[in-house]
Amino acid sequence: MSTRNLSEADLTDAVLARLERCEDPRFKELMTALIRHLHAFVREVGLTEAEWFEGIKFLTATGQKCDADRQEYILLSDVLGVSMLVDALNHKKPTGATESTVLGPFYVEGAPDLANGASICLSGGGEPTEVRGRVLSLDGKPIRGAVLDVWQTAANSLYSSQDPQQERYNMRGRFRSDDKGAFFFRTVKPVSYPVPTDGPVGKILNAMGRHPMRPAHIHFIVSAPGYEPVATHIFAKGDPYLDSDVVFAVKNSLVADFKPKDGGILEVNYDFALKPA
Amino acid sequence: MSTRNLSEADLTDAVLARLERCEDPRFKELMTALIRHLHAFVREVGLTEAEWFEGIKFLTATGQKCDADRQEYILLSDVLGVSMLVDALNHKKPTGATESTVLGPFYVEGAPDLANGASICLSGGGEPTEVRGRVLSLDGKPIRGAVLDVWQTAANSLYSSQDPQQERYNMRGRFRSDDKGAFFFRTVKPVSYPVPTDGPVGKILNAMGRHPMRPAHIHFIVSAPGYEPVATHIFAKGDPYLDSDVVFAVKNSLVADFKPKDGGILEVNYDFALKPA
After folding, report:
1. Which among B16, B59, B206, B237 is the top mutation candidate for probing chain A, defined by the most A β-carbons within 10 Å of its own β-carbon?
2. Which of A136, A218, A230, A253 has the fewest CB atoms nearer than 10 Å to its CB?
3. Looking at this predicted complex, what is its ipTM?
4. pTM of the entire structure?
């Protein structure tokens, strides 16, 4: 393998040859494919030096936009469809199991454990909503003690992690299914909202001619011993962005009706079905 | 184009379809190729969620390692051979023209203008060396007033931008060719050195089983009105890393002999030939 005077034609092989002492076969496989695709991209588009430098600056700025409460690289992965592709590859669910969707960049660990019937709203605003449902096995049996980690935007369309005016765990909570597999919490109807556009990802969305909107949804991670956890959403039926979600995450099986009940309060019913681990 | 229930098979087309309102044809071309290759990579290796998250953390950490004096993303591009590939695509030089090589992450703008014969060493250590040569046109005519922006490591193998003990412009300077196209400066012999290994790039070099060494070299950007500037190096003949440069930058035409002259001082002669703009 020549290691000097490397031309456009033989650079890729020279870089790959340097993996000869890589001891982890899976890491070698990942780096081999990454280097091949990265080089193929550069060659295919005939990347100019100015474009390369814009790319360097974009990648740098995306990293620097991240902090304890913001993950701009997850957002980038989301808007480029990579997150949903990874999800599709890793969560092939059997018929009847609740489908997964993107985790998103706004999950915060450590949400408080709340009793069924409690509200996740620590401040006002929004249309009062009751969320009820059950956690079931694939054969329809109730799963008791399943944990439902729940989060959503406040009425101002921001997650608490985006909004210093909100308490850290506003619109977040962890519930447990009861003996009948049932859960119940109070919230407000989620609203459609833009992903953050004040960072590098906002700039490329704009440059791509894309809107930054997500259809209204409530996030869930539902887990129970002996079952595969599912990270998913319940989307609000009728939302204008269901067919153009900026992160490509909508599945029809996850769309639910937020229906008015007596007294003008909204109610949504959704049952989760978990695949065995 | 379906926009819900996207599977592994149709996600890529769905993401590409969202470029329909992209107004810049070149940006659209770049994003189309980028999305295709990124998705193909994920699909080809069957990226797991844990691997995806390691990737997110790596990209984030790489951005966060960058500051005014350190560019970890350029270093990443360099060690993956991307920088030399971009160089090869953009600098196809005619026979006789000085070949370009990687700029690297250690260039600092604003180095002082120095007179021919001056030394770039503001502190001690190393083997005293005189660097002489000419800047020529392709037909061998001297180019007067060409600017040679020069930088290299100090004897401790660090660039001033890596080392708070060095003055900002230690081992850096800008020279101009005289009426005969000649330049001359004093320095110390450059040493082979490791690229920084205390960041994310160091970690993946280690995981790939690669050493971090570059063969000894002096950096130059040579420019003159009417000519295409060239960013290049002079490498030291005999260096043990000429055949395994961590950034794949060695070209035989750039290797020069650092020869002892009277009094034990080293001397290197190198002529640059510039391509017309």
Report:
1. B59
2. A253
3. 0.94
4. 0.94
